[in-house]
Amino acid sequence: MRRCGERGRQAVLVGFMGAGKSSVGKVLAQHLGAEFVDVDERIEEAAGRRIGDIFVSCGEAAFREMEREAILDAVSAPGRVVAAGGGAFVDEANRRALKAYAPVFFLDVSVESVLERLSGDRSRPLFPGGKEAGKLRELMERRRPSYQEADFTVSTDNRSVPEIADHILSLLARRSAPRREGGRA
Ligand code: S3P
């Protein structure tokens, strides 16, 4: 019966900066006829400033508080595809709220792809810059155990946004089917 309800149109995307959560989320939401909620955008709207400014003026701890609030707000209505910022799923309360809302997809990405995709991007305060692959790898590995608490892991390297969205759609369909097989992708 879940297939007919709102929950069949819900999904959560998590993963490292540059994994493609927002791009994939938009396409996925379109296919599902769901509302797309980008948690970072919601934070910027609520604060009236860019994430970079929030980090500089208020600090990371204040940003994480705003993020927790924005996540609770994101999961407060049915029929949404929610893309959470790269650090959100590390927080246990966020993990609980997101997992209770919908199947969670961890978009996995290599350090090399992150560097390629984000080089020249100055909007992410925790992106150490193209020359510091070691720091990036370290942050990614520190976060991996949290990301792995997602319901599904989806590799994004060498896959286009529509391909990733299609793959998630097929996993969602399998999950809502009456007789499903569990597992990871
Ligand atoms: C962050 C990732 C960013 C944003 C903020 C902090 C992180 O989101 O939430 O800059 O801690 O990894 P994206 O993953 O969408 O870049």
Short characterization:
The chain has 185 residues and is of the alpha/beta class. It has helices spanning 21-32, 39-47, 51-58, 60-74, 92-101, 111-118, 133-147, 161-176; strands at 11-14, 35-38, 80-83, 104-108, 152-155.
Write up this protein.
- The chain is α/β, with parallel strands linked by helices and 185 residues long.
- Helix content is 50%, strand content 11%.
- It contains 8 helices and 5 strands.
- The chain has a 5-stranded parallel beta sheet.
- Helix 2 (39-47) packs across helix 4 and helix 3 packs across helix 4.
- The structure holds shikimate-3-phosphate (S3P).
- Shikimate-3-phosphate is lined by residues 17, 21, 40, 51, 85-87, 124-126.
Topology summary:
Elements lengths: L10 E4 L6 H12 L2 E4 H9 L3 H8 L1 H15 L5 E4 L8 H10 L2 E5 L2 H8 L14 H15 L4 E4 L5 H16 L9
Parallel strand pairs: 1-3, 1-4, 2-3, 4-5
Helix pairs in contact: 1-8, 2-4, 3-4
Bound molecules: shikimate-3-phosphate.
The site of shikimate-3-phosphate has 10 residues, from loops.
